[in-house]
Specification:
Radius of gyration: 32 Å
CATH topology of the largest domain: Immunoglobulin-like
Number of domains: 3
Distance between the termini: 142 Å
Strand content: 25-35%
Structural class: alpha+beta
Number of helices: 7
Number of strands: 13
Shape: globular
CATH architecture of the largest domain: Sandwich
Order of helices and strands: HHHHHHHEEEEEEEEEEEEE
CATH class of the largest domain: Mainly Beta
Helix content: 10-25%
Amino acid sequence: MKKKEVSKQAPSKQTGPPVRRPKSDASTLRAVHPQQPRRLPKSENHKRLGAELRAIRERAGKTTREVAKPDGSFYASGHIANVEGGYATFPKSLLLAYSILGGDYVSLVAAAEKLSRYETRTSSQTDPDDDALRSGLADPTSLESLLRRGYAIDANEDTNYFGHNRAPIRSVHQVLIRPLLPTARFFVCRYGYDDDRRPGVLSIDTISGCEVARVQESQYGVLDIVLAFDQDNLDDLNRCTLSWVINYRTDVAASPQMIVGTKARIPRISKRAQFSEPALPSKIWWFRDTDPLRAHVDPKLAQIIPINSSAYYFHDFVDAETELCGLVWKWAD
């Protein structure tokens, strides 16, 4: 049986335009499988603070492999690059390392905490009471406890002036605050003079960055004050500086102490005192404790501030939280 022969035909010639098959070149692959987007910093403020850390390190002449930990080892170079690029958070231990390289620890911590607060504020999980909080922050007659939720204090400084009769003349106050919500407009403070509790002894004058929105005086001369500030005047780290004067109209000598109590953490508190002859201290020291009864216990040598001819004394307290701190002295005979 003969096999049937199958004739082989030559392939037909294509008469139309050539059909181009897609090439699996790099451009086609990118179109089908796009590259991951370039990594971006967590925020512009993260990028700015990271750049500040990089500048501190470079001024110190250190590489990313030469940022030391407290235990003497070194941070991974990649981690330092992430932090300085604004891709990571800023733990205090790392900020301490940069302060050793020449940075200002208090300022760096304040900036990092601001970023943390804003991240919390803008997170997707919102407080059901946010609307009430925001509206309450815009009203100076709201409860003081509510108004305080609108800001954090980064620094608190006061200078107290005493006359020749040991009585206070005035105290000059300056605070550095970070608004935590866009509607925050009011700062709350309270003053009293325990040695003369008559109404009318104290009064307030603003200096800069604020104006008086509300003042209430109790029957014991305590002033509850609400100061209005403007968030349009924020600095590069989204902070406001407010300053004012508390005036004293009294001849009653002051108890020998200036002590302030804190609840929320304050990165820096500065207490300063200027005395006038002949009402000078014979001994003065700084105090920091949770027990007010220990203020007048004989201080340790490190707490004593040397007597000087200018009669001006001060001490700075770092990271004060739920404690008392200030200056204590003994009047000269």
